[in-house]
Structures are given as structure tokens and as C-alpha cells.
Write a structure and sequence with these properties.
40% of the residues lie in helices and 19% in strands. Strands 3-4-5-7-6 form a 5-stranded mixed sheet, with helices on one face. A 4-stranded mixed sheet has the order 2-1-8-9. The chain is globular, with a radius of gyration of 17 Å. The N and C termini lie far apart (43 Å).
Length: 240
């Protein structure tokens, strides 16, 4: 069986369209989404509508949660370093715009997404089983990855959130980060998604027109379009 996991689309319809074209070539039997569908791009409503039309099962992401529960961002910010506070203020401005674009019905649908999804041999979460907001980095030790993901109970544990894909073989299990469709942080601006082919996980990278997406961001009216466009082009985390 071939299973694809597509995560962290962040309102980037241009990248999603490129990934969908690649998925048609890859022909998986099942496609799951890993959350963070809408916030952080030019086309939040269009992306949510497309995922719903496709009928992909999936999980809730942290930026999905903050759209129907703004206090989730406030609580995470309160527990984070003071150096990141300007970033959280920027994110809240963007979240307000995203809520307006989505409308109540789409936001209510996001609320229905579960935090975990299992389809053997995969267990999927957005970040970790205990948190939508915190997840191990690629540099995490084997012990940390085992502690966080072995309780999911499947031989392949999959998460998104950190925008840096990797595959790590551990004793009796594999931990995989899907990477992100949008706003990559690993230096490669292409979209990333996961394909598990007969139990073997492979990260697929898909080129898309970043200039077109940057133009869509500027034309959309989203706050801090310059920051988003800079992050897309650099494929690295950017402070505002």
C-alpha cells in the first residue's frame, strides 16, 4: 500500500496545486493531511475548500487551532522566550485576517479535526501526541524521538510542524517528518511531502512557482506579506 502525507500547506494554493500534480503521478492509495492548512498564505479559504473536496483524512495543526481558539497562541507565547514576542504579535495580526477570509463555517470544520490519526503502519500527529505546538527537531536524540512517538503504537510515526523533513530509523520503529508544502525551513524552497511505499518512507520534493505565490501574497492583502515572501524565497525561518 502507498500512503502519502501532505502537511503544512499554510494557505499556499500554488504549492498545493504542484503537489497535487505530483500525487497524480505517484498514485498513492491513501492521502492524509498533517494540519496547518490555512494560516500563513494568500489563499486560506481556497486551500481548506480543496482539502475538503478531496476528502483527505487528517489532523489538527497548531495554526488551525489558534483560528478557533486564539488563547492557544496566547498561552504558547506566554511560555516562550521574550525574544519571540514580536513574532507572536505578527502571527496574531495575520490570524485575524485569516479568520476573516475563512468565515465561521470553515473555522468550525477545522475544530472537528482530530489530534491523532492512525492507519497501519502509520500514526500521524501534527507536532507530538501531547502538544500541537511543540515537537522534536531533526537534531533530537533517538531517545527523545522514541519517548515522544513510540506511544503512538505504530511502526511509522509521522509528524509535520517543524518544516524540516527527515527520516530516522530507530529500534523497531521509524520516525518521519514530512516537511512542509509551504514555508520550508531547510534551505530547499520546494514543497515537501511524504510517500510511504510498502512501508518505506520517502520525502518527495516538488518545485513550484514561488514568484507567482509571492505575487498572490502581495495581492491578497494579508498582513506582513513582505515577511511571508522573504521566508518562501529563503526557505529558512525569518524573524519579522
Amino acid at each position: 500500500m502507498r500512503i502519502a502525507v501532505v502537511s503544512d500547506i499554510h494557505g499556499n494554493l500554488t504549492a498545493l496545486e504542484a503537489v497535487l500534480a505530483d500525487l497524480r503521478r505517484a498514485s498513492p492509495d491513501l492521502i492524509l493531511h498533517g494540519g496547518d492548512l490555512a494560516h500563513g498564505g494568500a489563499s486560506p479559504a481556497e486551500v481548506v475548500d480543496r482539502i475538503r473536496e478531496l476528502g483527505w483524512p487528517g489532523v489538527l495543526g497548531n495554526t488551525d487551532e489558534m483560528l478557533f481558539a486564539p488563547q492557544a497562541l496566547t498561552e504558547f507565547a506566554a511560555s516562550s522566550s521574550s525574544s519571540f514576542q514580536p513574532l507572536f504579535a505578527l502571527i496574531e495580526e495575520m490570524a485575524a485576517w485569516t479568520r476573516h477570509q475563512l468565515g465561521d463555517e470553515r473555522i468550525a470544520w477545522l475544530r472537528t479535526l482530530p489530534q491523532t490519526h492512525s492507519h497501519a503502519p502509520i500514526a500521524l500527529v501534527h507536532a507530538s501526541q501531547g502538544s500541537l505546538w511543540r515537537a522534536p527537531a531533526p537534531e533530537a536524540s533517538d531517545a527523545e524521538l522514541e519517548h515522544v512517538y513510540r506511544p503512538l503504537g505504530q511502526p511509522i510515526a509521522v509528524y509535520g510542524h517543524i518544516h524540516r523533513p527527515f527520516v530516522r530509523e530507530l529500534a523497531g520503529m521509524t520516525v518521519v517528518n514530512t516537511g512542509s508544502v509551504s514555508l520550508s525551513y531547510d534551505g530547499d524552497p520546494r514543497a515537501a511531502y511524504l510517500l510511504v511505499d510498502e512501508g518505506k518512507p520517502v520525502i518527495r520534493r516538488v518545485a513550484y512557482d514561488i514568484d507567482t505565490q509571492a505575487r498572490r501574497i502581495w495581492e491578497s492583502g494579508t498582513p506582513h506579506a513582505d515577511w511571508l515572501a522573504r521566508t518562501l524565497a529563503s526557505a529558512s525561518f525569518q524573524m519579522p
